[in-house]
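Section 3.1: Structural characterization of target chains.
Under the original work plan, the team committed to producing a structural model for every single-chain target entering the pipeline before any wet-lab resources were allocated. The record below documents one such target. The sequence was received from the expression subgroup and is listed exactly as submitted; it comprises 418 residues.
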Amino acid sequence: MADRTIARRRPKQAAQPRLRLVRADELRTPRAIAVATARRNLTLLLVPTALLTIVGLVMILSAGSISAVEGYGTSFWYFNRQAVYALAGVIGLVVAARVPYTFWRRAAIPMLLGLLPLMLLALHPVIGSSLYGASRWIDLGPITLQPAEFAKLLTVCSAAAILSRPWKDLGRARDAFLPLGPLVLAVAGLVLLQRDLGTMLIICGSVFLVLFVAGLPLRYLTWTAMGGIGAIAYFIFGTAYRRTRFLDAWLNWELDPSGAGWQLRQGLIALGSGGWFGVGLGNSRQKWDYLPNAHSDFVFGVLGEELGLVGAIAVLSLFGVLLFAGIRIAMQARDPFGRLLVAGIMGWIGLQTLVNLGAVTGLLPITGVPLPFLSFGGTALVVTLAGVGVVASVALDGVRSTERRNARSRSSGARSRP
């Protein structure tokens, strides 16, 4: 009995602290979390970009070697020029990534307005340079400049800047299409004067994607799409050479395989000859003057022939990872402008990829649109890499904003000390 009384009077022991597993991200500071997120996004963005650029240089060396020897006396001519442009594009990427993306909110529209006179210069018979009936280039001696490529980037940046303004009410037609509509129509009109329907489709399609991401009402999207389809049909069937390209070189190419359907036929032969693993790098037969534009618009056909289905799927996977990274960065952007900016740039790259691959595989008409990163074209490569740099700037914004908050907190703490 006494033992039980003593036991009841014994003081209770203090409760032992409970152990809890702590996740690694709970131990990290906000800046560390922002840096880790930016690092993942940048890896997903920049690794495919670098690999696609390297693959493009290799394929240009392979696909363009024969035509380079015939035209310039050396098989490295296209490769050397593209390598220089790739270096310039990398510099542009680094600079664009280090510049805060809010710069484009202020600068995009003035830069686009300043670009319009350059697009007119491309139509000048002396200053401009024509190829395959299109006047897209400005001849600057050792280099040529294609202003329409800059228009792709600046137009989507301008669209993002206009549609992200806080006083914009996209439910009203005036706010939705002014001043964006006249600006896009001016750019598209100049591109059409250069006889470059493919580039016009890329620009207008990219702006349409920006409108979709911005939340434009469905009725306005429907009207815009129907108007665009009607305009495209008019430009195709209202011009003789476009009508011939649409009907004879695409829909009915098998009726004239040695004439209007020659390029598409040779591109399909190149893709079909590759099999699973290809005929080997540098061993393409179609590049021996069978496939026109083997190093530019139809470089994917030579890639499929030399690297096979496995190589083609690997390249398509790189494009997929690149677009996935853009979606992640857009979803994590801290303001509407950053989200629309990334959506426009990645929409432009993705849409241009689909149009080019559709032409090579016969699913879409041949429009002369280059494949991003892979096709020969210096201005296109530089501008595309700079566009990736702008997307990288949005990805790095989380790190910059965290550093600014930390700096403000440190400065306020220093002022509060006695």
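The chain has a mean pLDDT of 86.
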